[in-house]
Amino acid sequence: MKTKGYIKKDKVNIITLGCSKNIVDSELLLTQLKASDINAVHESEEGEANIVIINTCGFIDKAKQESIDTILTYIELKKKGKIEKLYVTGCLSERYREELIEELPEVDGFFGTMDMPALLARFNADYKNHLVGERLPSTPLHYAYLKISEGCNRPCSFCAIPLMRGKHRSRPIESLVEEARFLANRGVKELILIAQDLTYYGLDLYQERKLATLLRALNEIEGIGWIRLHYAFPSGFPLDVLEAMLECEKVCHYLDIPLQHISDKILKAMRRGITQIKTQELIDKIRDKIPRIALRTTMLVGFPGETDRDFQELLEFVEKNRFERLGVFTYSHEEGTYAYQWEDNVPFEVKEQRAEQLMLLQQDISYELNQEKVGQIVKVIIDRKEGEYWIGRTEYDSPEVDNEVLISSNLQLKVGEFYEVSVHEASEYDLIGTLVNEPNYSKV
Fold this sequence. Notes:
single chain, alpha/beta
């Protein structure tokens, strides 16, 4: 890759593992490579690439293992001569770079989460600052993730993110609005705001929380139909965000607010900075202000010292609050975290049983809440066609992780467009319906 001619014959395939924040990083890398006239693709299955970049996750055991397995798979392809170069970037190599260099010498270079300029230099490419705000989304054209900050200042005892992503760094409102306009001009209809902690946004740049201000600015962008919030920390939650949700017609009545647990003993050990009473008060305030809001949360079971009584408190809390969307993780004992000093004393089998029990409860709750929607008319954005159904989502559902709406129609609907759907059937995680008014499109 020393001459211009050699660069032009290369083809780079970027493989992304982990969360939506990694997806954004890969999209930025793809944009930078293409701007340097390098043939690059994201997760191509054609097998034509001679160079592979793996953007890894290092969050918990399962994610780390997936990253290692993926690296080993491509090392084997390199040994067989099917690829020439293999680079690894992202959270895993940020956290374990020295160990990985020693254990996996077949990899041509390891780069951390902030090392994009160094990675680009391997292709004789410079980081182009004028491209900030521009990127090529790898998601379907009608939705995109908008990362409003990087890093995290929270002291959660179980979390390794600050070890990999550093301290919280907010992006200026102006640059976010510029990027959102760029995405809207490319056809994006739905912006999904992501960060390690959305609700901390602005404290470092403006000395006050500015998420509500950002929402109002994004709401003015032509072409955007929905704005969705992911990963809001409960402690110190800025209530003016609820006012912005009500004022801004494009902001979905949807909030992803990972609570992790509810037992005061476990919350204290997790260093979450909140109590059971304060958590319940916050949920009550949110639901009182926006009665039809969909709350997504995440729970963590099997934390060191979690007893049957602590878990029972969690079950009762979930049953009482009937979250519209809920996910469960089992505790992963991560070196370098505050909790690593304690014994990982909840057996693996118990962790798995608790996770399954909690998800079975949530499955019943989701079924009952979905049954209440039968007979209602919902606004849906179309994601794709699958078999005989068009698949879409309501404003209460994020892609990949939430419920879907299955629409039976013999018309050619448009992916990324909004339709009104009459719900006539529901299961635990899906709604089934038909168009309220069949639009005048040609038959399939």
